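Forgive a beginner's question, but would it be possible to get a protein, spelled out as residues, together with the matching structure tokens, please?
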Amino acid sequence: MSIISEKDVELLKSGKHFTLFDVLGSRNIKVDGKVSTYFAVWAPNARAVSLVGDFNGWDENIMPLTMRRDGTGIWEGAFENIQKGSNYKYAINTIQGLKIHKGDPYAVHWETPPAQASKTWDLDYSWSDGKWMKERAKHNGLDRPISVYEVHLGSWKKPGKKQELDFYDYRTLAHDLCTYIKEMGFTHVELMPVMEHPYYPSWGYQIHGYFAPTSRYGTPQDFMYFVDHMHQNGIGVFLDWVPSHFVGDLHGLYRFDGTALYEHEDKRKGYHPDWKTYIFNYGRYEVKSFLISNAVYWLEKFHLDGLRVDAVASMLHLNYSRNDGEWIPNKYGGNENLEAIEFLKELNQEVYGRFPDVQMIAEESTTFPKVSKPVFEGGLGFGMKWMMGWMNDSIEYMKNDPLFRKHQHNKLIFSIVYAFSENFMLPFSHDEVVHGKSSMLMKMPGPFNQKFEHLAVLYGYMFAHPGTKLLFMGNEIGQTHEWRYAEEIPWDLLQFEPHQKIQTVVKSLNLLYKTEPALYEKQFSFEGFEWIRSGDWQKSIIIFKRKGNKLKDTLYIICNFTPVVYENFNFGVDLLGQYEEIYCTNKAEEYLTGKKQVSHKSKKSECDALPYTLNISVPGLSMMALKKLELKKKSV
């Protein structure tokens, strides 16, 4: 009995089958009125394949699979009396005469590591997020505020003794994390990879079970509940996705049928020297179908709002982390991975064609052009790209003593030169608080208490700068040490006032971002930004406008990156009238409680090449936002 149709065969052979999860792997079917469990696996170079598991004593001779004769390289078989939750693997006889046991590449559930077997399971679940799914375009659109809280589920909070492998389950995390994200005002959560991975210290980035949420935190249905609960509470869910490389564990994809099936045979193309992992062969039709099917699977079956695609730079460049002689040029002699480029284009076209209301986000650190431009314009087709240049420059600028920042002023303003060449997301991610880089707070200069003020103005600048936002867990409370994957975030720091205050600043910035259209409606367009004063390097002050669709929404942003207070500070504005200080990082609590801020009247006097002047007091180490007050017409 087979569930693979002629159409499936045609699509698979042409590299266009993007729902392979519907035909490969294991599932229950009816044969002659009886329920059987059907198994299908791609292993074209195997001499023989059989099913082994706890239902047959792991005997390789009892349940042989049959290879289809249509050239697909698929082995299949259906067997009765296999219960849901049974552990299984494929026993493969290789062309070298070896016998190896492999997990199912399409398994939707696995044993909890260090156990290595796949499990028979289903994806039955009753969703309750219909309202979100119907309306999510307005939450995920490029003209909407997208403020992301990046989370590693295993170390956000821990139960009991808080040991490394002590975890809350998906359902408990759904409630606790959702409550916190709503309180903080983030619009989305981004999860570091939850796909099944054998080595916990890889943080989820070295995967062997691409179609299975890790069983460390529960079942696929438990993860569905997590997403469902977030959606019911108005929070979008992005997921880190890793099509760049896979782990070399013997029970995984590595040399799956005894040959380099998913990877390249030549290590100059198929092995990643930094991570000691294996690179997918993007030119092989079945591998391309596997990966695109996997992206579709997470978006379709788990209702995710988008994928953040990891390590895109390593996919695009054949010489990534390689010395001369350690890589093979493309057919034109260049270093571009032409097969990976075409794969990414097809991936994004397929995803947006099926799910136009999601976001595909590239973690890409080079100057490769048009990453977030449509394929028909010659781009890769992503919706957004991480703004790594801004992140690096901003951190390097802030590390300086404020007395010397004036000499690094270009690091502060250079990002605007290229800010609208891509649809950028501004990230302070997990990568910035590991491997000796120190926590965000401890990157800041000066005495301990003043570090919080520096961090507050940096976050203020981040939220005022064009682009969507991403902040890694712990950054919002001024964590003092680097992120430690084996421990939970040090929530006990919140008993101290400086940590409470920086958390309040982040909360207030999220509210400002969500309630002021000028900060998001044109966040990817030059039309939404205008310098007022970019060259005041001696004071380390920058002033700019953020503009929305309506003139009345225009904000005037002043960032002061020194502790010096400037009284009677003049800058230019467009119109005569009253301007209210609607926000200041130094008054975050007042903003959250709705306390009315001071207002100033502009006077007719040219300043900064604008016809009117405002005179205000600028606090030290602060980001301020001012807005022209609309005068209410008197009723007659």
About this structure: The longest strand covers residues 34-42. The CA atoms of residues 41 and 265 lie 21 Å apart.
